[in-house]
Write a structure and sequence with these properties.
The complex is a heterodimer of chains A (89) and B (137).
Chain A lengths: L1 H25 L3 H26 L4 H25 L5
Helix pairs in contact in A: 1-2, 2-3
Chain B lengths: L1 H31 L3 H4 L1 H26 L5 H29 L37
Classes of the chains: A mainly alpha (89), B mainly alpha (137).
């Protein structure tokens, strides 16, 4: 039963990533592209968590934690650069 | 014992399916909604909630089915729930900043401009005595 749930969630996340990619390529403004990248990072964390459940080992959650931190820092760095013209003032 | 096991697997499966559905709905909102301020709603709420559901499902799966207790997932979800509003606020500030510069109106047109007396927080310099003010340093 957990196999069917995992298959559904994998397909849902793949479709979500494709939609984010569409918004990343299409997005009329810079803000749309930053938002699409941020959402892609969130969905990639979901993929890693699902892969950890499918493999049955708990080692992949360190990767999820690191991606959560680095993705947030990346989003804030993009926004800071656009707002202030510099990242670390 | 087998009844408990089946219930745990059912609970974990339901949480995972719910999480995947919410993540899909969030990205669908990102594609469909007309302007950036509306598009922010999808990823910040639906996708974060979906990821929270998947992480809870993972906790339930490893605790009840595998028999090992892990707290990494809770750490990830707490971190995400704290950082998602901050990232959304930064993106909204970027959007307002670009509107002020005359870039990127978007398909639905720009939102209502703030009046001359009440500027958005992005455009205001930090007030004296607040944490963002470095005038006296």
């Amino acid at each position: 039963m957990i196999g069917y749930a995992l298959a559904f969630a994998f397909v849902a996340l793949a479709a979500a990533l494709a939609m984010n990619l569409w918004r990343l390529l299409r997005g009329p403004g810079v803000g749309d592209r930053i938002l699409a990248l941020d959402t892609m990072v969130i969905n990639a964390i979901g993929m890693i968590v699902l892969a950890g459940i499918a493999d049955g080992d708990g080692t992949s959650f360190e990767a999820a934690m690191l991606l959560a931190m680095v993705g947030f820092v990346g989003t804030v760095a993009y926004c800071k650069f656009l707002l202030r013209g510099d990242i670390i003032e | 014992m087998t009844g408990d096991f089946a219930f745990a697997e059912l609970l974990a499966s339901a949480l995972i399916v719910l999480g995947g559905a919410f993540a899909l709905i969030g990205s669908w909102g990102l594609v469909r909604l007309p302007s950036l301020m509306e598009r922010l709603h999808g990823p910040t709420k639906a996708s974060t909630l979906g990821l929270g559901g998947m992480l809870l499902g993972s906790v339930v799966f490893f605790q009840l089915v595998e028999g090992t207790w892990t707290t990494h997932e809770l750490l990830v979800s707490v971190f995400l729930f704290v950082t998602a509003p901050i990232a959304a606020n930064m993106i909204a500030k970027v959007h307002l900043h670009q509107l002020k510069l005359g870039k990127t109106p978007g398909p639905a047109g720009p939102p209502a401009e703030p009046g001359p007396d009440s500027l958005w927080a992005t455009y205001e310099a930090p007030h004296k005595g607040t944490p963002g003010c470095f005038a006296e340093d």
